[in-house]
Amino acid sequence: MATKQLQCAPTPARPRSTNGVINTTKAGTGDTRVVVIIYGQDQEKIVSVFADVLGKPYRIASSFSAVGSEDHGTVIGMATSDAKVDIGSRNKMLMVAINAHCVNLGMPPDVDLSAASDYEFLYTETPFFRRDLSRFIAFTLGQISHHEALITKQRTYFISTTFPDVRTALSNLDILSVGSDAVEIRVDLLKEPLSDGTFGAVPSLSYVGEQVMLLRQRTELPIIFTTRCTRENGRFPMDNPNLYYEYLYRAIQWGCEYIDVEVWLPEDIRRRLYEQRGNSRIISAFHDFSGTFKWPSPQAQQIFDESRKYGDIVKMITTISSMSENYELEYFRSQIKANNPDGPPLSAVNMGQLGQLSRALNTVFSPITHPLLPIVAAPGQLSAAEINGALSTMGQLPKKNIYAIGSFRSTPQATFFEKCFNELGLPHNFASVDRGVKGSVEAFCLQPNFGGAYINPPLHSNQPYIPILSDAARTIGAVDTIVVRGEGASCSFVGDNATWKGIRATLTRDFAPSAYKDRAAIILSSSGEDAASIIFALRSLNIGKIYTVGFKAQGPLASGVEPFTSIESVQRVDQPFAIVSALPPEKSHLVQPLLRHFSSSGRLTPTRHVAGIGGKGKVFVDLANGPRKGDPIAVAEQSGWTAYGVADTSAFTTVETLRLLVGQNVPYSFVRLASGRGLY
Fold this sequence. Notes:
Aldolase_TIM, Pentafunctional AROM polypeptide, Rossmann fold, 3-dehydroquinate dehydratase activity, MurA_subfamily, alpha/beta, six-stranded mixed β-sheet, DHquinase_I
């Protein structure tokens, strides 16, 4: 297969901040360069959607030389034919070039344009997945960072899609990815059908790009892009190292969160990929199938040292012949951790049945399988449920009692928890109990096997038996999740708040965090307590002025919050970017006049709506739960708002609550599936 070497490939600028909306309480600024969207024939409308997602106006330019510093804050659209003229001489410090290619056109992207762009976004026009675009642009511009959040978890897992065509996996992906923190696409296992009925020895870049696109459209998990060589149990040929560079660099351009780079590759290739990785992270990988590798040997340390030079995570996988080698690995792991406190973290397991103990003991990106996969990616792989079962048997995952405390109606998340526990193979007991009289929550906490609780309605944060509070719980003044840290007499309770994270995840589902920066928002609520988590979520997105209806903010959240006092005060307000209603169901219809008043006429840039791809420029979230008067969601959508209901925020809150309580990831899509409503 002929390949085009990318010897002079551009280097995507390192984002100024990788503190994304996922892992901290403040969204990072990210890449502040002018965003230039290169679009194909008759695809100008994609520019308006990028602008919509970023919350910016846009204009069309005829060349890169026509883009100047005055365009900061504006998304620039440029036709493919115009972009090809001077993309190579553009000011890379001023602008970031994204080649947006619609695969429905039936032609692969222009090879030269792909190579010269900073990033490439592949999309389908019908159906169009706006959330895919939102995630892509937020990640590539450094506004979100999965890695910074994942490396702080006690355990992380990833599942490998061992399918020759990822379409085969899509229908089961919600279930396959339960317990996983990332999903790996094994590029070397893909089989591209040819016109003569055979398969290509190596899948083409255009085929691989579409496979990555399809996978990202159906999962919110980070993607690990892997090209495993023949010597390391893969199918990619080893005679042309530049082939690896071409595919791995293109994965960076496609916005894959993790790139698996084998340590046998020439140092120059590994160095270039590391320097050009943008916001992606490099997994520096070593696999040994010879059976001669030994963990106590100097070779093991040498491989780690070589791997860490150009890696954000070091992965070492080997075969063993005796059980004792698992303990040798654990000693090696402990030495690496002690001698390298600042990382990079080590993911190391032994293959085969003898090595399954090491898979249970590994805590960093353990590769897992699932019964629904056609083959295991490596000998001896276990599922998340099997690993949890093994940990429980070894006493590393003691059985606990975990509660949802409140009325059944007020805790919609409770119905999902047991299904999630069963799918994860967790040993814990789960019970939904009434809150009862004052002091009853403390009584549950003092039980000997108490493992945590979700509480709705939340507790006030000043409970004497909850000595530690997260910043969010302290500022909001409410605890909806009690997390147990430690064991036995040394255990302590931590009060946290998951609701604000669920609200924030909803707000950023179809919009980048930067869309909210310095924009106005309106909150309707009967009390400041009910609105506190909303204010905190909006503040985490660097929102501007917040206006309130029905309450007056108090305490640490009061700054920058102004109540509406009359119709005239409403009329004086600029167009709000977000309206969030926490009114009870019987009053939820009161938001409808505001939705109509601030209708879509206030868009940043008027654009014609195109079926299947048009975006809506503002956000409405209705948190009312139960029978209500009117239909605020329908009114919002008719008035040009992107609207979400309590089912969305509840599902995202469940995801965050499970992460806090049991430290494992259950995707939003599975929560919606388990609740009886499919996501797609």
